[in-house]
Amino acid sequence: MSSRGISSRYQLDAVTNRFLDDFPVHCHFRNGMIGQSEMHAHRGYELYFCLEGDGKLLVEDRVYSLQPGAFAIMKPHVLHLARVIGTKPLHRVVLSIDERYALSAFDNSPGIGDCVRALFTEPQLPSSCWLLPAVKAEAIRDVLLRLTRELSDKPLYYEAAIHHLLAELFVALAREQLSPPAADETDHVTFHLAERILQYLAAHYAESIEVSRLHERFNVSRSHMYDHFKQATGHSLNRYLTIYRINQAKRLLLDTPLSVTEIASAAGFGDLSHFFHTFKSETGRTPNAYRKRTGKN
User: Fold this and answer.
1) Would the pLDDT of 17 be above 80?
2) What is the pTM of this model?
3) Greatest CA span in the chain, whole angstroms?
4) Could you tell me which of 240, 201, 243, 188 has the C-alpha nearest to residue 56?
5) Counting Cβ atoms within 10 Å, is residue 41 exposed (0-12), middle (13-18) or buried (19+)?
6) CA 252, CA 260: separation in Å to the nearest integer?
């Protein structure tokens, strides 16, 4: 799936996609600025592990608190954005795994396959996040560090070593997920309104939504709703709704035989000309051109 021509306001993560084209697993430690400043999506599962610092992770209709030990899993093609809180850098590990590899690599290992399903396919939400105890967080960090070294150095039999390390990681995470404490419990009240709005938008994006009157549904003032949503997500309500609808349209263009007219309606664009204009403004292509060109990559 190519990202050439995609507007910087809504991005497919071409860098991650290229890494996964070359090898189905990519892992790296980061301690600098967050490169992505807008909502983005990519192929493959993303596992996001916070080591130091404080931040927020916006994943479609969820806002998670990033603090040391927070571990998040995001499904393929899910919009997400990490943001730093304060001035301290966010130290994190980002592990990307090709979807097909993740779901098939352990087919002959029944126990590990159960762990994979528990982590990646059984949860109904597009993401999950929990807070690891300090001892387990250190053990997970060690596994990810060894995984990063294998991928970087590529010693003899590194592919077998990566397979083994992923199995170790999946077992540890699946055990922890049996009774996961909420990683965003501290900020649950702070982000509660934003999450309610995000969940409403995700459930009703295909309908006509009058954003200027949305505050009436949540029994708050319009200004409070706007300010709170922008603080929690980094986006205005109108901007987020546009991004979400365009992402749904992209999925339908690539994954279904629906006509462009049907997709415009299914994605919440009541007017076809408005859909064409918005889609081209966001991606640099018409819907038909996007389907034809991107679907081949």
Assistant:
1) no
2) 0.76
3) 62
4) 188
5) buried
6) 9
* Residue 232 belongs to some domain of the structure: yes
Instruction: Provide the pLDDT for residue 40.
Output: 84
79-89 pLDDT, tens digit each: 899 988 888 88
Whether the per-residue pLDDT at 140 is higher than 90: the answer is yes
Based on the number of CB atoms within 10 Å of its own CB, is 265 exposed (0-12), middle (13-18) or buried (19 or more)? middle
8 Å CB contact between 71 and 49: yes
Return the H-helix or E-strand segment holding 215: helix 214-218
Q: What is the pLDDT of residues 236-293, one digit of tens each?
A: 999 999 989 998 898 899 889 999 999 999 999 989 999 999 999 988 999 999 998 7
Q: Quickly count: other Cβ atoms within 10 Å of residue 243's Cβ.
A: 20
Beta-bridge partner residues of 11: 40
Q: By residue range, what is the domain housing residue 232? A: 188-294
Count the neighbouring beta carbons within 10 Å of the beta carbon of residue 214.
19
Within 10 Å of residue 248's Cβ, how many Cβ atoms? 18
Instruction: Domain count for the chain, please give it.
Output: 2
Which structure tokens are listed for 130?
């929990």
Residues 44 and 131 placed together within one structural domain of the fold: yes
* 8-state DSSP, 121: I
Contact (Cβ atoms closer than 8 angstroms) between residue 222 and residue 238: no
DSSP letters spanning 78-90? --EEEEE-SSS--
Q: Which CATH number goes with the domain that contains 252?
A: 1.10.10.60
The one-letter amino acid at 176: E
Question: For residue 36, which of 70, 72, 83, 69 has the smallest C-alpha distance?
Answer: 83
pLDDT for 89 equals 87
- 73: its two tokens: 């899993």
Give 36's DSSP letter.
Answer: -
Average pLDDT for the chain = 86
